[in-house]
């Protein structure tokens, strides 16, 4: 084995999310050339991506993460040339602005995993650009942006999702996770959070960002790693404390996202009163009774769910957030439970109006949809 290298970075993005990236990064099991050659991906020139995004125009920006801006662009997939806006294939181009090893390592890890994995609930990586200092990634465009935008952005561009669509998105994300944890993939995702759950025009959820992913435990054995990487608020307590990592750490993060879906509140918010800043701690006492859960539900979806459905999702969150990882459900169990909940919901009249209607582009119909540019219809 070659030598390991250490990097110590704390990366903060515009939402003040703090990524934990104090890391000892082992050498990749495959060389960079091997990864780039074996991935079934297209290699783009910087010039093509610059033209495709209209010179990385500010009004093409879809969002920003710790590693750079994400732009909307257009390409011709056959010729791999830039296309005129509104023609060809719509893409999302992530441009890394992080210099140094960490950004490059995550860029390569993303290619390593997404170049090999394929599932309807994982975002599709179309290609990449590696030219001089430029590191870019080219993804399928997810027209409704991230779950984070829908839950937390207070603007006319992003409307809050209704209850049924929240369940649909949670189910899609659970299916993505179940695939990652399956014997076919054996991947621990490590960065499950609202901003990494992207939503397409039909509200199908797809997981993105595999820069922190890691090969999963073989035969149920767990990793003990000096690496602690993820996002504060979502990372499982045992992982934060000891670096002890199993696929059940992803399930904890799923539980945090379920709480965010229920309450419409971010998992950590320093602007809330001190006892409410950490959502998991604040919400726990409210999660076990039908009466109490109503106190913390997102006021924007009042009347769209039965108290039975709300408490079932809350119970699922409680199980995911179990302090002892072995008591957390598997991703397959999450899928099953959320499918049952969806069936239950279909049988009830609540929110039927919203889902019974066809969603029509970005126009407001039934369930609220995007009505503006960012992440939607630039
Ligand atoms: N394929 C895509 N299609 C549409 N929008 C996207 C796509 N990928 C990313 N975005 C938008 O860009 C935003 C930033 O994404 P990015 O993955 O860079 O960072 P993040 O997940 O918000 O934060 P972090 O760096 O901590 O992972 C997303 O929240 C989303 O709104
Ligand atoms: Mg992301």
UniProtKB/TrEMBL annotation:
Keyword Ubl conjugation belongs to the record: no
Keywords noted in UniProt: ATP-binding, Cell membrane, Kinase, Membrane, Nucleotide-binding, Serine/threonine-protein kinase, Transferase
The keyword Transcription regulation belongs to this UniProt entry's keyword annotation: no
Region (Disordered) location: 353-378
UniProt-listed CDD domains: STKc_IRAK (cd14066)
Pfam families: PK_Tyr_Ser-Thr
EC number of this enzyme: 2.7.11.1
Residue ranges occupied by any Protein kinase domain in the UniProt entry: 56-341
UniProt name for this protein: non-specific serine/threonine protein kinase
Organism: Mikania micrantha
Lineage: Eukaryota, Viridiplantae, Streptophyta, Embryophyta, Tracheophyta
């Amino acid at each position: 084995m070659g030598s390991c290298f250490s990097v110590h970075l704390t990366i903060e993005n515009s939402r003040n999310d703090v990524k934990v990236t104090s890391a000892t990064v082992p050498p990749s099991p495959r060389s960079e050339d091997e990864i780039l050659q074996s991935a079934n991906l297209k290699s783009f020139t910087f010039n093509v991506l610059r033209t495709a995004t209209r010179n990385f125009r500010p009004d093409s920006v879809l969002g920003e993460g710790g590693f750079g801006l994400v732009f909307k662009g257009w390409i011709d997939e056959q010729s791999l040339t830039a296309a005129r806006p509104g023609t060809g294939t719509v893409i999302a181009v992530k441009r890394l602005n992080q210099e140094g090893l960490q950004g490059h390592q995550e860029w390569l890890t993303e290619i390593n995993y997404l170049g090999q994995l394929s599932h309807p609930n994982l975002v599709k990586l179309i290609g990449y650009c590696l030219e001089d200092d430029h590191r870019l990634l080219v993804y399928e465009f997810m027209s409704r942006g991230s779950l984070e935008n829908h839950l937390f952005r207070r603007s006319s561009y992003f409307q809050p999702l209704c209850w049924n669509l929240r369940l649909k998105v949670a189910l899609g994300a659970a299916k993505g996770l179940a695939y990652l944890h399956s014997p076919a993939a054996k991947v621990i995702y490590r960065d499950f959070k609202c901003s990494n759950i992207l939503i397409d025009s039909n509200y199908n959820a797809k997981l993105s960002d595999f820069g922190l992913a890691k090969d999963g435990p073989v035969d149920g054995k767990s990793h003990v790693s000096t690496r602690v990487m993820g996002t504060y608020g979502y990372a499982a307590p045992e992982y934060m404390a000891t670096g002890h990592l199993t696929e059940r750490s992803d399930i904890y993060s799923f539980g945090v996202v379920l709480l965010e879906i229920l309450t419409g509140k971010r998992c950590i918010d320093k602007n809330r009163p001190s006892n409410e800043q950490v959502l998991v701690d604040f919400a726990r006492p409210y999660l076990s009774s039908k009466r109490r859960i109503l106190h913390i539900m997102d006021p924007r979806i009042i009347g769209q769910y039965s108290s039975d459905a709300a408490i079932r999702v809350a119970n699922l969150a409680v199980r995911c957030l179990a302090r002892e990882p072995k008591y957390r459900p598997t991703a397959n169990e999450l899928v099953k439970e959320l499918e049952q909940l969806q069936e239950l919901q279909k049988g009830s009249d609540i929110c039927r109006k919203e889902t019974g209607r066809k969603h029509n582009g970005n126009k407001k119909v039934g369930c609220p949809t995007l009505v503006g540019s960012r992440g939607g219809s630039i």
